Amino acid sequence: MVQSLWNGAWIAALATGAVVIVLIVWAAIFHRKRKSKAELPPQVRYNLPIEMLYTLIPLVMVSVFFFFTARDSERLARVDGDATVKVKVEAFQWSWRFTTTVDGKPLQPVAGLPVNDYRSGPQLVLPVNKKIEFDLSSDDVIHSFWVPEFLFKRDVIPGIPEDNPGRKFEITTLGRTGVFAGRCAELCGVDHSRMLFSVKLVTQQEFDQYIATNQAGSAQ
Ligand SMILES: [Cu+2]
Q1: Scanning 54, 57, 62, 194, which has its CA 20 to 30 A from the CA of 203?
Q2: Considering the entire predicted model, what is its pTM?
Q3: 132 Cα to the center of ligand 1, angstroms
Q4: Domain that holds residue 26
């Protein structure tokens, strides 16, 4: 959905740009000053239909942009609350702690340290193609949770009460397995650039095994 909004916006912007360039070139060529004619062209003051067109067309264009943006951002920000896998994300200077809960049962938290390579940071293991609910919190400054591959980013702001819907978002994970980079996208101090983590997407079967070996309270 983010991809289609992005593509649609580009197509609309390119079409608008093409029309504008054609009009500029056309005006420059066909309305340039001719040597043969010294007198001023007829001076027209108002042309009501054209003035109205100039007002209406941008209004229609902006409305179309607004409609699609509002529709998609509402959908992206919506939290249905029925995800079986939930992740509590705690951001701190300068790493992350992830606590995954499956059907209400928490797994061992995963916490990390600042690193130079996202693969050595804390790793969040999730199943492919599944709706995940995230709950973001920070104990110190503003961070930003960003997995570029998910096309989603959300600021992690300290001091938001637990029941506030602004802390939560849902995404459906990608349909393919792999290890994806995650970052902090808000300058949060000296080791901000090393606040890296990874998301490992595994098949449901592998995820079930992961749950079995990482139930909270079981021996590591
Ligand atoms: Cu940060």
Answers
A1: 194
A2: 0.81
A3: 22
A4: 2-34+42-77
